[in-house]
Design goal:
alpha+beta, Immunoglobulin-like, four-stranded antiparallel β-sheet, 30% strand, rod-shaped, membrane, signal, Ig-like_fold, SpaA_PFL_dom_1
């Protein structure tokens, strides 16, 4: 299915739709018909007992707008004609057009009503006459009939069309049968909350009555608090040619991303514009008058990118990490900190969560809402750091967490004052050995005492002998 951006201006409402009015310049004189886009066929279909040199299969211009005749053999529209809102389109014979055919006409007017292709224009004109002025019997083709009773010679006109126009007839007919209305359009945002600055997929679908997708449909979008990847200045996106959903990469720029869209879809039935100046002799016409406007809308919420806090607990003197320190995580005012999803960060006791430093003296708190102020407060002193701990004013540190960042915080502890033992109990197996120097003096004293005793003993023995 080919793209139809040529009729985008009409789709978006700048061309008057069926049911509106075409106004000519007041007092303008009747002029020759202004043929726009299409093909002439020769010779023309005879009627009224006369041969005709040519017929025109294509569009006409009325006040600069492209229109299509739907009442074969009446006078064609001209540049000075005025029109007023008309009724539901019927056949030349005043009978209702079957629902499926009416839907086909609406679709083709929507898709090809502003075509600039002569082959497509001739094909559309041929189909319009075939569906609205088809013969009820062979008598309706009698060339002696006047213009009010002559039917459109479907086979005769088709045979005179160029080959490319004949191919366009078959293509348009099949396309209309497949894609006629009613259509349904929907825009879907992600179920989960989005993150500002991060793209996510939104889907746009246009479906026909059998629930199959319609391709090459332009949709004009209006975007709030978001950016849509590839969206041009005109704000128009087009559904894929195969009818599959259009995936939009949407990046929130604020907290409430929202997208609305409008598109033209084929109405169930087209409407005509009736002639004012020559109501009994001028053809009824339709323009892009087979459409209805559909709207789509979707919205979600978005938050800033999450952040994390990385806390280092260190010795004030050695700067070594202190393991096993319990720290309570709160907002600056002592209330619970918030997770990315907006829920409070609580422990099993329902109080603000407590984290404990690891072997290296650090701990990380991830997935926090940003921006917010985070405070880490020591719950109890680590072993060896009790002296400096004040339970009434425990050590704490505060910082502001920005979107998508890791806040680095450091909390120091002053170690306890070291103590030295001043008395060692006697007999303590852990008593330190006597220094070697002292051990030598004791030995000498012992030897001297022993020597003196031996001298006294020898003197006593000697005295007894004498």
């Amino acid at each position: 299915m080919r793209m139809f951006r040529k009729w985008l201006t009409a789709v978006l409402g700048t061309v008057v739709l069926a049911g509106g009015s075409l106004l000519a310049t007041p007092g303008a004189a009747t002029a020759d018909p202004q043929e726009a886009v299409g093909h002439e066929t020769r010779p023309g279909q005879p009627y009224g007992g006369r041969e005709r040199a040519r017929d025109w299969l294509g569009s006409y211009l009325v006040n600069g707008q492209q229109v299509w005749c739907v009442q074969f053999a009446l006078t064609a529209p001209d540049s000075g004609e005025e029109y007023q809102p008309g009724d539901e389109l019927r056949t030349k014979w005043g009978t209702p057009i079957p629902d499926d055919v009416a839907a086909n006409i609406s679709y083709l007017l929507l898709r090809y009503g502003t075509t600039q292709s002569p082959d497509e224009a001739a094909a559309l004109a041929h189909l319009l006459h075939s569906w609205t002025a088809a013969p009820r019997s062979q008598a309706d083709l009698d060339p002696n009939n006047d213009f009010t009773r002559i039917a459109y010679d479907i086979e005769g006109h088709y045979a005179k069309l160029p080959q490319a126009a004949k191919q366009a007839v078959e293509r348009l007919k099949a396309e209309a049968a497949a894609n006629r209305g009613p259509w349904d359009a929907a825009l879907t945002a992600p179920e989960d909350q989005q993150t500002i600055g991060q793209a996510a997929d939104w889907t746009l679908t246009v479906r026909r009555a059998d629930d199959k997708g319609v391709g090459d449909v332009p949709v004009k979008l209006s975007v709030t608090d978001a950016e849509v990847e590839g969206l041009g200045p005109d704000g128009v996106v087009t559904t894929p040619s195969d009818g599959s959903p259009l995936v939009l990469k949407v990046t929130p720029t604020g907290p409430n991303p929202k997208i609305t869209g409008t598109l033209s879809a084929p109405a169930e039935r087209p409407y005509v514009r009736q002639a004012v100046n020559q109501p009994d002799t001028t053809q009824r016409v339709v323009s892009t008058g087979g459409e209805q406007e559909l709207s789509v809308e979707a919205a979600t919420t978005a938050v800033t990118a999450p952040g994390a806090v990385h806390v280092s607990k260190v010795d004030a003197e050695s700067q070594a990490g202190i393991a096993g320190v319990a720290l309570r995580v709160t907002a600056a005012d002592g209330s619970p900190a918030l997770r990315q999803d907006g829920t409070p960060l609580l422990g099993a006791d329902g109080q603000p969560a407590v984290v404990v430093t690891g072997a290296d003296g650090t701990v990380t708190v991830p997935d926090l809402r940003t921006p917010q102020e985070i405070k880490l407060t020591e719950v109890a002193p680590a072993r060896g750091y009790e002296e400096a701990f004040d339970s009434a004013n425990p050590p704490s540190v505060t910082g502001t967490l920005e979107p998508g960042t890791t806040l680095e915080l450091t909390l120091t502890n002053k170690p306890n004052t070291p103590t030295v033992p001043i008395h060692i109990p006697a007999g303590d197996p852990t008593e330190p050995p006597v220094p070697v120097g002292l051990l030598g003096l004791a030995g000498l004293a012992a030897v001297a005492v022993a020597g003196a005793g031996a001298l006294v003993l020898r003197r006593r023995v000697a005295g007894r002998k004498h």
